[in-house]
Amino acid sequence: MNTKPFLPPGKQAAYALGQLGWSTLVNIVGLTLVYFYLPPENAGLPTLITTVAFLGIFNAITLIAASGRLWDAITDPLIANWSDRSRHPRGRRIPFLAVGALPAALFCVLMFVPLVRQTSALNIVWLVVVQMLFYLFLTVYVTPYFALLPELGHTASQRLNLSTWISITYALGIMVAAQTPALAELVQATFGVADKVTAFQIAIGALACVAMLLMYLPVIFIDENRYCERTPSDAPLLTAVRTTFRNTGFRYYVVADFAYFMALTIVNTGLLYYITVLLGLEEALVSSLLAIMVILSFIFYPLVNLLARRIGKKPLIVVAFLWMSVIFFGVYFLGWMPLSPTLQAYALIVLYAIPIAFLGVLPNAVLGDIAEHDAQRTGQRLEGMFFAARTLMQKLGQTLGVVVFASLTILGRDPGADLGIRMSGLAGFALCLVAGLIFLRYDERRVLRELEANAAAPTPPGRQEVDAKK
């Protein structure tokens, strides 16, 4: 039973804005990297790395993106275990945030600064090295950041509220990152920058600086010792990993999450292609579409919060997975429907906003419940490891998502030869369907019932004395 005070509104805002910072960085990479290095013919950008296929299905950008995500997945449990076991005077999480923010922003920018402005093996080597450093320091920040959620939120309701706030800022990060093409055009028009690559670099550099400042807000304003129960874990790395995956509810959660993030990565990576190749529209339209998506998802957030309290988080997540699968199925038919291309683009994004609202808020709150329930049941506080295990599976899903998308581009990624781009929608459909079916197995009622029973139990006399001394 947590005896610490709940985080006040101003500090909740500081915590949530940290997510806006790192969300901006990771979505710049997710939305722009493949497009920047492997652009379609009508993009006005040079091809910077070879497009030769290996083993018939893999190209260089596939292997590079996969290596970065796999490295990221490996570092997640290591950072989580160090964070769970930390005895730093400022707490188990905040010191990691302080270390990770600056280099994560720096290496995000450097990923878009190729050594050579043409197809070159040097660009491959550079991108591999810089990408690994980016994901290392992003993990140093993000894994302890998520571990703070169940520690700062002491009840299921508080965790749901915090999850709602960080979902808003994550979505804002998507919207900010999506401004990259439009900002690059603005740089070209305002400052007379003729080279489109340079314009992209200036735009990304400006966004990364703002993101870094936001990432330092939780470091500055949150006193972890005041608001979190500080009980370092003594579990070694492998023991902690086994403990998390031994939790039945977590296994259903994380497998569904893996399938969902694989689908989401496929479709998000393809978004610029859907707009420019399948619909023949300008790439700058993506920033407007994602802004609309974020604003619409905000409108649904209060409803998500209300429905989750009344009928539970699990049924809403399942329905959202199934809804998203239908939307992804529709991607295959973009440009063929008896509607104007612009109307198809806006219809896609409006329908996409609804499940994004539910899946942006609820999964983090569910995992917070699982981590807190496990801590009460086992006596080991492994919040960092639960969120690391989740992000490990997410990143494996994202890795495979990039691999699948980039591999499908071999089947066609240009106007008039676009089969690979269309097939990516069908891949997203199948994966979201699988995610929904798997998550049906999660027993949310039992987890919440036992959490409530524990919260209602009186504090043992020995514990009261310890709390009084604190």
Kindly state the percentage of residues in helix: over 70%
Domain tally: 1
CATH architecture term: Up-down Bundle
Low-confidence stretches: 459-470
CATH class: Mainly Alpha
Question: Sheet bearing the most strands, described?
Answer: none
The gross shape turns out to be globular
What is the count of β-strands? Answer: 0
* Class from helix and strand fractions: mainly alpha
- As a percent range, the share of strand residues is under 5%
CATH-assigned fold name? Growth Hormone, Chain: A
Characterization of this structure:
- This protein has 470 residues and is mostly helical.
- It has one domain: Growth Hormone, Chain: A (Up-down Bundle), CATH 1.20.1250.20.
- The protein is globular, with a radius of gyration of 22 Å.
- The protein starts with 8 loop residues before the first helix and ends with a helix.
- The relative contact order is 0.16.
Summarize the structure.
The chain has a single domain (9-451), classed as Up-down Bundle (Growth Hormone, Chain: A), CATH 1.20.1250.20.
Explain the layout of strands and helices.
Elements: H1 9-37, H2 60-85, H3 94-110, H4 121-152, H5 156-178, H6 180-191, H7 196-215, H8 217-221, H9 224-227, H10 237-246, H11 248-278, H12 285-311, H13 313-331, H14 341-378, H15 383-408, H16 419-439, H17 444-456, H18 461-469
